[in-house]
Amino acid sequence: LILTVVATTDFDHVASMQELASGHHTPACLASGQYDPSVPRVYLLLHDASDHKDIDPIAIMRRLQSKYPPTLTRLMVINSLPKENPNVHQPDMWSRFLIPRFFPELSPTLQGPTTTLPTNPLSGVPVLGSRLSMEDFMTMREFCITLFNQDIVPWLERKYSFLNKQVNDSRKGVKNVLKSFWRKPKDESEIVKGSVRYKFDKIESQTLLLADLSFIIGDIE
């Protein structure tokens, strides 16, 4: 699943969404054929309520839903607490995730004089998410639950059933069994530099993906 996000502060929200969803922003693993490019996409409109009182997110949301499937186009409002009254006692749920697994040198930092985050009066530590209200947390929780239940799980079920059928069909019959014995792996010299060994619609790739999905959902025999 691909999550495409635009902010209510963007000048043209529909054009911004179209640009982000266009082919040249597609992840390389999809563009190369390593994975099926027909991945479901969810469109998210992000609204910062504390700094942009003059923006109507509902009107922008209606405009986006007229261009994209309404069930896949969603709104998330954050920072509902005013700048003058942040929650400086907000529990820290983010620091351990600031350093990414890959490219840690590109990670954000709270060090330096440019930080404008409020600080906890007891510890003196900058407070992350200080303007998130309880309603904001509930909105994010509901968004994640909906994304998981309505988008991720159904896609996994459909993909697993499809791959299971494809792999089982390819293994049926004496002819296919014999072919599998004499099938040779691709010669390295035959693979074009920068291309993938087996594209998503090849049985080798489908078998590997089926194995991965089986481990994810715990269907191991």
What does this structure look like?
This protein is mainly α and 221 residues long. The chain is built from six helices and three strands, in the order βααβαβααα. It has helices at residues 13-20, 28-31, 57-65, 134-171, 174-182, 203-217, and strands at residues 2-7, 41-48, 73-78. A three-stranded parallel sheet has the order 1-2-3, with helices on both faces. α3 links the parallel β2 and β3. The longest helix is centred in the C-terminal third of the chain and has 38 residues, at 134-171.
List the helices and strands and how they pair.
Layout: E1 2-7, H1 13-20, H2 28-31, E2 41-48, H3 57-65, E3 73-78, H4 134-171, H5 174-182, H6 203-217
Short description:
38% of the residues lie in helices and 9% in strands. With 221 residues, it is mostly helical.
Which keywords apply here?
single chain; 221 residues; mainly alpha; 3-stranded parallel beta sheet; 3 strands; globular
Poorly predicted ranges: none
**How large a portion of the residues is in β-strands, by DSSP E?**
5-15%
Discrete helix count: 6
How far do the termini sit from each other? 27 Å
Write down the Rg: 23 Å
Largest sheet strand order: 1-2-3
**What is the mean pLDDT?**
82
The total strand number stands at 3
Characterize the biggest β-sheet.
Answer: 3 strands, parallel
Taken in chain order, the helices and strands follow as EHHEHEHHH
Class based on secondary structure composition and strand pairing: mainly alpha
The dominant shape is globular
- Helical residues, percent: 25-40%
